[in-house]
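Tokens as discussed.
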């Protein structure tokens, strides 16, 4: 009997010790929750997006509060309470909250501000209220859009034409350029806060619906101001092209061997696929390549140089209708100038620049594209072979290839295109020394 009592007391003592250990080391732990904030910018604008992460490994989370602070102002953005059981504590050990708020709608004004995060855990400390963690994250509220002023007075623009827009921006910006209709033309920084954007109106766009300078600062504040412009009338020829069986039987095998999907039953059907589907695909490749930021500074010192001793075979901007045995079968825009000299003539670079493409490209055959800076590119098509490499710097007049008939070309000639930030433009303006001086180099001079 005595032994039984001893064992009972021992068990009781062990239980009391166990409970003490449980209470002191587990339920009364003093580790406060851990708080971090992700994505909070140093400069915030009208919209503030961030993620709050809180965690508590030991007893779990009891509650979380997120406040916006400014001066004496304290605005509760979010409050959460998690279920806590007396013995088990909280089952929520980690929580991520993504919030998007408008600081202005919450009554904050421009200037220094902060986020305050408070989190409590399920510990029994502090009269069962848990350990409290508080963290403050400072940021500055910037609600002023960037100051933008135009340097250019009036911009002359025509269908298929190019123009230079010069402007100044009063602060550091994250994105700036010019909108001409739906097209965005990147602005390139010059000296003293000045920017230059080369812009172009595609030959198939007859109206100007939006022509603005755009700037967005690091806090996301935006400004868009209108550009004064004069839309010059410019007409482009409509041309009838007659397709002969000879042309189809000479040219289509090249495409059939390279593109199995060009097999459409007959040579005429292959031609229609090449002229429409492949042309669109090739033009998209060119637009993508020439829409990227220029990898070189502006290299132009005068007008572009054309293929020497050549005759013009076709104009830029021609709208071509293709006829086969008297029936209209297809149409296309011709987005370059066709220049013919003697067969296999050396092709000089129209200006110095960097090779960004040198490969076979469908209807264009063997093609080279040069980057001249500021988003200005020249393209040379139907070349005999590929004689330059991507990344290579070439100087004005340097031979970059030889004329031939690769791609959709009936006879030996150079198809020459000029592109402004992804848009095909007439090379005629860029061949004209007066136009280049008055419209591009003259205005740029003071800022280079
Ligand atoms: Zn051509």
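Sequence:
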């Amino acid at each position: 009997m005595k032994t039984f009592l001893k064992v009972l007391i021992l068990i009781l003592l062990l239980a009391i010790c166990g409970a003490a250990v449980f209470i002191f080391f587990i339920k009364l732990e003093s580790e406060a929750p851990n708080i971090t904030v992700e994505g909070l910018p140093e400069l915030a604008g009208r919209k503030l997006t961030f993620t709050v992460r809180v965690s508590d490994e030991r007893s779990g989370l009891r509650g979380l509060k997120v406040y916006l602070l400014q001066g004496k102002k304290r605005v509760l953005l979010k409050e959460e309470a998690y279920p806590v059981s007396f013995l088990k504590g909280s089952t929520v050990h980690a929580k991520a909250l993504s919030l998007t708020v408008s600081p202005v709608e919450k009554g904050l004004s421009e200037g220094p501000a902060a986020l305050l995060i408070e989190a409590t855990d399920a510990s029994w400390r502090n009269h069962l209220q848990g350990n409290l963690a508080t963290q403050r994250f400072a940021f500055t509220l910037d609600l002023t859009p960037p100051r933008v002023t135009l340097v250019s007075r009036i911009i002359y623009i025509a269908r298929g034409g190019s123009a230079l827009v010069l402007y100044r921006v009063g602060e550091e910006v994250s994105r700036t350029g010019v909108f001409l209709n739906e097209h965005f033309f990147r602005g390139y920084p010059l000296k003293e806060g000045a920017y230059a954007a080369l812009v172009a109106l595609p030959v198939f766009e007859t109206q100007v619906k939006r022509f603005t300078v755009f700037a967005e600062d690091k806090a996301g504040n935006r400004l868009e101001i209108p550009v004064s412009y004069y839309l010059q009338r410019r007409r482009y020829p409509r041309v009838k092209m007659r397709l002969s069986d000879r042309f189809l039987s000479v040219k289509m095998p090249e495409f059939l061997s390279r593109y199995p999907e060009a097999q459409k039953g007959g040579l005429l059907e292959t031609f229609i696929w090449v002229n429409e589907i492949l042309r669109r695909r090739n033009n998209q490749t060119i637009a993508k390549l020439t829409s990227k930021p220029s990898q070189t500074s502006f290299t132009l010192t005068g007008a572009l140089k054309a293929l020497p001793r050549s005759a013009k075979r076709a104009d830029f901007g021609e709208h071509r209708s293709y006829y086969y045995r008297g029936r209209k079968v297809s149409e296309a825009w011709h987005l370059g100038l066709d220049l013919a000299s003697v067969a296999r003539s050396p092709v000089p670079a129209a200006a110095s620049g960097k090779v960004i493409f040198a490969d076979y490209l469908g209807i264009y055959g063997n093609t080279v594209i040069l980057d001249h800076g500021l988003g200005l590119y020249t393209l040379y098509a139907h070349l005999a072979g590929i004689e330059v490499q991507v990344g290579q710097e070439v100087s004005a007049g340097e031979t970059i290839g030889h004329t031939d008939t690769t791609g959709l070309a009936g006879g030996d000639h150079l198809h020459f295109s000029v592109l402004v930030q992804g848009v095909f433009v007439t090379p005629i303006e860029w061949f004209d020394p007066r136009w280049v001086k008055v419209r591009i180099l003259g205005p740029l001079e003071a800022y280079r």
